[in-house]
Known about the structure:
- The chain is mainly alpha-helical.
- The protein is built from twelve helices and no strands.
- The longest helix has 32 residues, at 233-264.
Amino acid sequence: MSGAAVASGISAHRIHAMVLRYWYLLISSWPRMLELIYWPALQIITWGFLQNYLSQTSGFFAQAGGSLIGAVILWDILFRGQLGFSISFLEEMWARNMGNLMMSPLKPIEFLISLMVMSLIRLAIGVIPMTLLALVFFNFNFFAIGLPLIAFFCNLIFTSWSLGIFVSGLVLRNGLGAESIVWTLMFGLMPLACVYYPVSVLPGWLQYLAWVLPPTYVFEGMRSLLIDHVFRADLMVWSLAMNAVLFIASFAIFLALLRSAKHHGSLLGGGE
């Protein structure tokens, strides 16, 4: 273990144990595995054929460089990243095991890190087949984006983790009655994140709200790269700075909600 890890009191063994717990839960159920692949595959096929149709009837989409398919894949990284984090958290809530975990030596930061690792694992299971389908069916090589893909991915995954930490804190404090926010929050942000269209199509007052969201910069950057063949590093820097603030704020909120849950005894219940 590194000196930094020892100094902070973070145990790699405890994190590894939690990751193994969620991994065994995942591979023990073939419907869980199938679901991770099914929905991304369905999305890329549906939207890919839609882009094929539009490219035959619209000069713009014929020159758009797969921007619609790219948007679908990037959106799935954002959505599945948050969902993969939250589902692993909900496994503990459904099993009513949160009280046991919080009374163990496991620290909140170790718990969150294990959820982040599982988020990446679940994301890879869904997105890798998705990108292969995009290549086979639509001749769109997602990885040909090159180094900018790293900036896109990092910003989206940081946003997804921040939102996952925030909604997990809400469910922790309010019980499974607040579970629906896990599924609905990201879709509520989707119109303002401008996944499939540029910010300029929004009304002026909504554009200000759109630029408050870190994913907006990623999707604008993706369109700039695929359509105009220009990598907007400034957009990525702004997104990263906003993600840093969002991540710190979400972690602080999670700790506050955890303390509140302990104070009100909701850790041992976790029901509706």
